[in-house]
Amino acid sequence: MEPKWINDQPIYLQLRDRVIGMILDSSLAEGEALPSVRNVASQYQVNPMTVMKAYQSLVDDGLVEKRRGRGMFCCEGARARLLDREKMTFISEEWPRILNRIRQLGLKPEDLLKGLGSEEAL
């Protein structure tokens, strides 16, 4: 299956976001090895340097560590740090936009709660 790349975002950031998503949904456990640079480059048909740049960005953020001769591994506590960061980003950046949209549409809390009961909302 061909990956779907977003044209206005560098591929290394998209790869980075995929690894972050794997950490957040626990499909990449703390202490577990990341897929090799070669495997990712081959799977997504990208330059290995692009994958390495994505991985290095994760190392710089303290989410991944290099183990000489063994590869890259998800750091202990990475998921908790990511969750804290993502919650703060949601509250400070995303929630104000969502709240503004709710107000624009004149929605009430009960309208939102009704939406949670439908399968489409999940």
Question: What do you see in this structure?
Answer:
The protein has 122 residues and is mainly α. The protein folds into two domains: 11-74, Arc Repressor Mutant, subunit A, CATH 1.10.10.10; 78-121, no CATH class. The chain is built from five helices and two strands. It has a two-stranded antiparallel ribbon with strand order 1-2. A hairpin with a 3-residue loop joins strand 1 and strand 2 (71-74). The two termini are 26 Å apart.
Radius of gyration: 18 Å
Q: Helical proportion?
A: 55-70%
**Element string (H = helix, E = strand):** HHHEEHH
Number of domains: 2
CATH fold node name of the largest domain: Arc Repressor Mutant, subunit A
Assembly level? single chain
Tell me the number of helical segments per DSSP (H or I, 4 or more residues long).
Answer: 5
The proportion of strand residues reads 5-15%
Profile the largest sheet.
2 strands, antiparallel
- Overall body shape: elongated
Question: Unreliable stretches, pLDDT < 50, 5 or more residues?
Answer: none
Corresponding CATH architecture of the largest domain:
Orthogonal Bundle
Give the strand order of the largest sheet, numbering strands 1, 2, ... along the chain: 1-2
Q: How many beta-strand elements?
A: 2
Average pLDDT: 92
Structural class comes to: mainly alpha
